[in-house]
Amino acid sequence: MAQPAWQDPVPLSLDTAPVPEYGSGSLADLLPTLVAGQEVPGFTAAIPELTPADRNCVFLIDGLGWEQIIAHPDEAPFLYSLLPTSRGGTGRPLTAGFPSTTATSLASVGTGLPPGEHGLPGYTARNPETGELMNQLRWKPWTAPKVWQPYPTVFQLADAAGVHTAQVSAPTFEQTPLTKVALSGGSFLGRLSGEDRMDVAAQRLAAGDRSLVYTYYSEVDGKGHRFGTDSDAWRGQLMYVDGLARRLAEQLPPRSALYITADHGMIDIPFDEQSRIDFDEDWELRAGVALLGGEGRARHVYAVPGAQADVLTVWREVLGEQFWVASRDEAIAAGWFGPTVDERVYGRIGDVVAAAHDDVIITASVNEPHESAMAGVHGSLTPVEQLVPLLEVRS
Question: What is the mean pLDDT of residues 101-129?
Answer without folding.
Answer: 98
